[in-house]
Each structure stands twice: as structure tokens, then as C-alpha cells.
UniProtKB/TrEMBL annotation:
Pfam families: Branch. It is found in: Membrane. It is a single-pass type II membrane protein. This is Core-2/I-branching beta-1,6-N-acetylglucosaminyltransferase family protein. Its main location: membrane. Keywords: Glycoprotein, Glycosyltransferase, Membrane, Transferase. Transmembrane segments: none annotated. It comes from the Eukaryota. GO terms for molecular function: glycosyltransferase activity. GO terms for cellular component: membrane. InterPro entries: BC10-like, Glyco_trans_14.
Length: 295
């Protein structure tokens, strides 16, 4: 299918509310990666025993063939992919391709976007419950009055998008099915971003957060579930390798004393995933996954 055919098909919504089968909700883990998945062994351990409650989708650079054994949950999960270049609209295209493929499975209810450098910091049952019982989706969305926030708005988007509606947020989203369908179905606002959001405007940091703010804000928690450390400054966040992985560090990501809101109540569980980790972090992470992350 072309993207156009795929997005159309994925945007179809059943009118009949009762499913003619026992619908067990699934979480779609959607990996947007260049190629290899260095943390596949950690994800495999995380997913083990929970078959039927999740689906995996993998978008890579075209031509890349993931080499995993047939018993891996990643086996045969690559979707038809196109070239992606950092900071361009092609990144949104890839995200939509992942969403659309995942929407074709009617059991998928929650949609998590991940990269090859992301890891889970809780066990599967905790993450599954947190997502499937949430009244909100998790897409970071904030108004920043700075050159890197409102400064990236283009007047050419007026009047369809106005400055006060403009938002910024992390690319790494978590969406419910309804929002995923709406994003796949949108063409009008997507087109404005593809025309007028070019460096130093980055569609992946603005399109979904602005679009949701305009039409579906009440369904959004406006925060990301993916922990990241930006305090280094610069265009890329801190990356953690072998020498940085300690029990304390992972515990800090799981709970650093910060209180966030979950279903309108205070919660200390604010992040379920974390980035960025370099491949050398795999071994120490596997060593402490059972004691710290409980899987
Ligand atoms: C795939 O992985 C297996 C096992 O690690 C290895 O023996 C094989 O050479 C790999 N194949 C390719 C095409 O890289
Ligand atoms: C998130 O922001 C929207 C505005 O876009 C607002 O309507 C909504 O109440 C906020 N969500 C929460 C949980 O505060
Ligand atoms: C985040 O990065 C800053 C700057 O390198 C560092 O001081 C801080 O300890 C890091 N935070 C965590 C939780 O690792
Ligand atoms: C990781 O550890 C190295 C060596 O101790 C240190 O130089 C580096 O700043 C650490 N990285 C982060 C992101 O904390
Ligand atoms: C906890 O983590 C959040 C997100 O990284 C950060 O904003 C906050 O400052 C941290 N709090 C403490 C007490 O370190
Ligand atoms: C992981 O555990 C193995 C076996 O206990 C040990 O040999 C190895 O040094 C550990 N690696 C790290 C990075 O802690």
C-alpha cells in the first residue's frame, strides 16, 4: 500500500460499539530506529510471558534487515519503511506509518513510540496497567515563549494555526486509539507543517503537540512518559553507557521524589521509559533488571 492508502485504511473506525470477539487490549510498542536494536535482549526479557497483551512494530532505514531468531518478539515485525532524515517531516511520516500499521490490529489500544536507545524502567504488568487504565494520553505539550518555542511558528500557518495555539514537546509520545486515528486522518495541519515547519523548526517537536492542543487537549496529560536528561545543554540529551549504569541511577528514573498527576491524582510513578542509552549499557542493565526493574 502507498502511505495514502495505508492512512486511509487505518483511519476507518467501526460504528458498532460492541466487538464480535473478546477484545483483550494490547499495547503497541512502535520502534522508530535506524537499524539495529541494541536493547532487544532487554525488551525480550521485559515482554516474556506477556504474549497476547502487546504488539511490536519496527520502522528502520529502508533496506535494513533485522537479524533476530524466530522466537524473538521482534521477528517479522518490520514495516515497509522509507528514508528518514533528522528534523524533517519524513520523521512524522515514519511515525504515522507506525501508527497506521498498529491501528490495523483492532486490539491495539495504546500506542507507544520508542527509539533504539529507549529502555523500559518498570516491569510489563506495571506498564500495561498504567497505560490501559489511564484516562489520558501522554504527549508533552507546552507553550514556550522563546526562539526555540514560539520563535519557530511561521506566520504562513495563519489563520489555520495561530501563535497562541502553538506548542512544543518531545517526539516520544503515548497515544490512545482515538487520538492515533485522528492523527492518521489529519491532512490539513500535517500539510501546513510539511510546508512551513523547516529548520530551525522541527515538525517532530511541534506537530502532534500543537495539533492535540488545538483539538484534543482534554485527552492529553501534556507530559511525556519517557525520561531524558537535557541538563547538559546542546541539541542532544545526555547518553548513558556502561560506566553510568547503577542501581541508584535507575531508581532515580523510577522515582526521584517528583510528584506528577495520574488520572487526576498525585502519583510518584511519572516515567515508564527512559533514554538515551548507548549499546554498552546493555550488559549492566541486564544485570540489574531483575533486582531493580523487577523483570
Ligand atoms: C544473524 O545472526 C546469527 C546469530 O547471531 C549469525 O550467525 C548470522 O551470521 C547473522 N546473519 C546475518 C545476515 O548477519
Ligand atoms: C492539557 O492541556 C490541555 C490544553 O491543550 C488542557 O485542556 C488539559 O486540561 C491539560 N491536561 C491536563 C491533564 O491538565
Ligand atoms: C543529568 O545531567 C547532568 C549534567 O551532566 C548531571 O549533572 C546530572 O547528574 C544528570 N542527572 C541524572 C539523574 O543523571
Ligand atoms: C558517564 O560516566 C562517565 C565516566 O564516569 C562520565 O564522564 C559521564 O559524564 C557520565 N555521563 C553522564 C550522562 O552522566
Ligand atoms: C526529577 O526528574 C524530573 C524529570 O527529569 C526533573 O525535572 C526534576 O528536577 C527531578 N527532581 C529531582 C528532585 O531531582
Ligand atoms: C554482569 O554480571 C556478570 C555475571 O554476574 C558479571 O560477570 C559481569 O561483570 C557483570 N557486568 C557488569 C557490567 O556489571
Amino acid at each position: 500500500m502507498t502511505d495514502e492508502e495505508l492512512f486511509w485504511r487505518a483511519s476507518l473506525v467501526p460504528k458498532k460499539v460492541d466487538f464480535p470477539f473478546n477484545r483483550v487490549l494490547k499495547v503497541a510498542f512502535m520502534f522508530l530506529a535506524r537499524g539495529p536494536l541494541p536493547f532487544a535482549p532487554l525488551w525480550e526479557r521485559f515482554l516474556k510471558g506477556h504474549e497476547g497483551l502487546y504488539s511490536i512494530y519496527l520502522h528502520t532505514q529502508p533496506g535494513y534487515k533485522l537479524n533476530v531468531s524466530e522466537s524473538s518478539p521482534f521477528y517479522g515485525r518490520q514495516i515497509p519503511s522509507e528514508e528518514v532524515s533528522w528534523g524533517s517531516i519524513s520523521l512524522i511520516d515514519a511515525e504515522k506509518r507506525l501508527l497506521a500499521n498498529a491501528l490495523l490490529d483492532f486490539s491495539n489500544e495504546r500506542f507507544v513510540l520508542l527509539s533504539e536507545s529507549c529502555i523500559p524502567v518498570f516491569d510489563f504488568p506495571t506498564i500495561y496497567k498504567y497505560l490501559t487504565e489511564s484516562d489520558y494520553s501522554f504527549v508533552e505539550s507546552y507553550d514556550e515563549d522563546s526562539p526555540r518555542g514560539r520563535g519557530r511558528y511561521s506566520k504562513s500557518m495563519y489563520p489555520e494555526i495561530q501563535l497562541y495555539q502553538w506548542r512544543k514537546g518531545s517526539e516520544w509520545f503515548e497515544l490512545n486509539r482515538d487520538l492515533a486515528v485522528n492523527i492518521i486522518a489529519d491532512y490539513k495541519y500535517y500539510l501546513l507543517f510539511s510546508k512551513y515547519c523547516k529548520p530551525s523548526c522541527y515538525p517532530d517537536e511541534h506537530y502532534i503537540s500543537t495539533y492535540l492542543n488545538m483539538f484534543h487537549g482534554s485527552q492529553n496529560a501534556n507530559r511525556s512518559l519517557t525520561w531524558v536528561n537535557w541538563s547538559f545543554g546542546g541539541p542532544h540529551p545526555a547518553s548513558y553507557g556502561r560506566e553510568n549504569i547503577t542501581e541508584d541511577f535507575i531508581q532515580t528514573i523510577r522515582n526521584n521524589g517528583t510528584i506528577c498527576t495520574y488520572n487526576n491524582k498525585p502519583s510518584t510513578y511519572c516515567f515508564l521509559f527512559a533514554r538515551k542509552f548507548s549499546p554498552s549499557a546493555l550488559e549492566p542493565l541486564l544485570n540489574l533488571s531483575s533486582s531493580v526493574m523487577k523483570f
